[in-house]
From TrEMBL:
Family: Belongs to the peptidase A1 family.
Organism this protein belongs to: Sander lucioperca
Disulfide bridge map: 103-108, 263-267, 311-345
Record-annotated active site: 90, 272
Name of the protein this chain belongs to: pepsin A
UniProt signal peptide: 1-16
Keywords carried by this UniProt record: Aspartyl protease, Digestion, Disulfide bond, Hydrolase, Protease, Signal
Record function comment: Shows particularly broad specificity; although bonds involving phenylalanine and leucine are preferred, many others are also cleaved to some extent.
Gene this protein is translated from: LOC116046906
PANTHER family: BETA-SITE APP-CLEAVING ENZYME, ISOFORM A-RELATED (PTHR47966), PEPSIN A-3-RELATED (PTHR47966:SF22)
Keyword Signal: yes
Database matches in InterPro entries: Aspartic_peptidase_A1, Aspartic_peptidase_AS, Aspartic_peptidase_N, PEPTIDASE_A1, Peptidase_aspartic_dom_sf
EC primary class: hydrolase
Length: 384
């Protein structure tokens, strides 16, 4: 499998871990901008990233939203013989699901579909799966099969086969989602893939790590069962979880030029590979964007606002620093500003409309992130 990499430490060949390369493809936003459809799309399907973490859907129904900037995906396979799918490795959810031949919505017809009849190891579960979106839903059935991740065969893995999907999924490059949060979050009580990896003894350590390369198209990787020193420099800061449901931690404050602009007195944040931006409450995000010189595209502040900056001033823009567990995690202007040939330069700080913060890909690209299930901690180190 060209998309599976086994890495072994020089000191002991038994200390191996599995890496799944991530490809950074064109995002839904980029596709829609090229087609001249972005303004119409974002008004029709408003972006509410915090809906994904609505506690009302923490067990049973799992909330998601239409993040048009998601662009990282890796390849897994399901069944015997294997059927390959591009999936988002999402630390903000817990279910695995892919499109199926039972689905004929526009979103499914634009992606690969799993055919259970073509797999000799498939077993029907008989249960239903419903995953709630901010602007629609994914519904389907549950089944069991061998799911191969980075060459690791996870046998009898429960997963969702979609029968319908929200319309915005048709613009995403990924076929489905592989959730990496805690089992308590999982819809329909389905055991997450990584939990089965641990139970079956497929990983040396009960942790996985994520590196999102600054390179536009290659170098990003998810590592199962280990920490790859090639992807970070300096010491790892270990941060205890404040809630073992998501990968949730406490942020002490957020500063710009030494001035506290958000999270005064502390706030809660989720480290989430399935969110593209750094997201926070509207007032806090507005403060940060104002301090870095950004203005709302529409002159108002709402969940759909794009905060724009002068593309020529990026090098002079101040750092934004997150103070977490006694350590400083700094995001420079070059990391939090994204440039579009159609819409100019905008910041990676988005309104969430909630008290909860989300440290998405803008943050993770700067800090190699380790998700430690054995000790219920997140490790952060400066990404190379």
């Amino acid at each position: 499998m060209k998309w599976a990499v086994v890495v072994c430490a020089m000191v002991a060949l038994s200390e191996c871990f599995i890496q799944v390369p991530l490809e950074k493809g064109k995002s839904a936003r980029e596709y829609l901008e090229e087609q001249g459809l972005w303004d119409q799309y974002r008004l029709k399907y408003p972006y509410n990233p915090s809906a994904k973490f609505d506690q009302r859907f923490a067990v049973g129904n799992e909330a998601m939203t239409n993040d048009a900037d998601l662009s990282y995906y890796g390849i897994i396979s399901i069944g015997t013989p294997p059927q390959s799918f591009k999936v988002i490795f999402d630390t903000g959810s817990s279910n695995l699901w892919v499109p199926s031949i039972y689905c004929n919505t526009a979103a499914c017809n634009n992606h690969k579909k799993f055919n259970p009849g073509a797999s000799s190891t498939y077993r029907n579960n008989g249960g239903a799966l419903s995953i709630r979106y901010g602007t629609g839903s994914m519904t389907g059935i549950l089944g069991y099969d061998t799911v191969t991740v980075g060459g690791l065969p996870v046998t009898n893995q429960i997963f969702g086969l979609s029968e319908s999907e929200a319309p915005f999924m048709q613009y995403m490059r990924a076929d489905g989602i592989l959730g990496l949060a805690y089992p308590r979050l999982s819809a329909s009580g389905a055991t997450p893939v990584f939990d089965n990896m641990m139970q079956e003894g497929l990983v040396n350590q009960d942790l996985f790590s994520v590196y999102l390369s600054s390179n536009a198209h290659q170098g990003s990787v998810v590592t199962f069962g280990g920490i790859d020193p090639n992807h970070y420099s300096g010491a790892i800061s270990w941060i205890p979880l404040s809630n073992e449901l998501y990968w949730q931690i406490t942020v002490d404050s957020v500063t710009v030029n030494g001035q506290v602009v958000a999270c005064q007195g502390g706030c809660q944040a989720i480290v989430d590979t399935g969110t593209s931006l750094i997201v926070g409450p509207q007032s806090s995000i507005s403060n940060i964007n104002q301090m870095v010189g950004a203005t709302s595209q529409n002159g108002d502040v709402n969940l759909c606002s794009l905060y724009m900056v002068n593309c020529n001033s990026i090098s002079q823009m101040p750092d934004v620093t997150f103070h977490i567990h006694g350590q400083e995690f700094t995001i420079p202007g070059s990391a939090y500003v994204r440039q579009s040939q159609y819409y100019g330069c905008r910041t990676g700080f988005g309104n969430g409309g909630d008290s909860l913060w989300i440290l998405g890909d803008v943050f993770i690209r700067q800090y190699y992130s380790i998700f430690n299930r054995a000790q219920n901690m997140v490790g952060l180190a400066k990404a190379r």
